[in-house]
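Entry type: protein chain
Record version: 2
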Amino acid sequence: MSVHDWTRVEAGIFHAFHTSWIAEIQNALNDELLPSDYYALAEQHAGRIIADVLTLHAAPESSDPLPPLPPDTGGLAVAEAPPRVRWKQSIDETSVGLRRTLAIRHVSGHRLVALLEIVSPANKDRAENVEAFAAKAVSALQAGVHVLLVDLFPPGPFDPQGMHGAILDPLGPTDEPHEIPPDEPLTLASYAANGYIEAYLEHLAVGASLPEMPLFLRPDRYINVPLEETYQAAYRGMPAFWREVLEK
């Protein structure tokens, strides 16, 4: 079994797993998966309990404006190797306007390039928390920051279309509607921001293996994140008692 039914344990148990998983993803990305001028860093935002993870680009500290990103930033070119997902949505650019998180930054000024967000039970337990989580993702996308969303919890009363649906609502119309398959209620969504937004989607059921998902470094280039490998590495560190509960 790969993905477990995390609704069977209290939020604090997933919190502990979440922390370990973010660390495993950070290690995998920094161990040569990211181009040499990028790095991933787990970050804890003020007022949040769980660490966040990012991707950045870098330059010397200066009051001068940041230089543009260099043209060759590594990763896979979308035009040559489109992300291998089953669904794709485009959000109308006129409506876009130009948690624990994994931040991807480039070394030119340590600018924020992408966020990897793993949804926790606390993000879904009330309407205002869903709204706050979605607002964070929307704000990042509108600023041109790419986002990879990992939602291993089924839709609930406050996110009936999952967190992906909660993010889409304030962004505006898409090129075509998208419903979560009833037999695959968990959602992975990668968003490429470039004035307009392209969303690359996968859904899965409890017990399924996690596919690799694209994490965009720029609108036309991405790397694949090894979600399955890092998930299993983090899960091996879970206490035997809780592994037994999850595996029954």
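Comment: The two ends are 11 Å apart (CA to CA).
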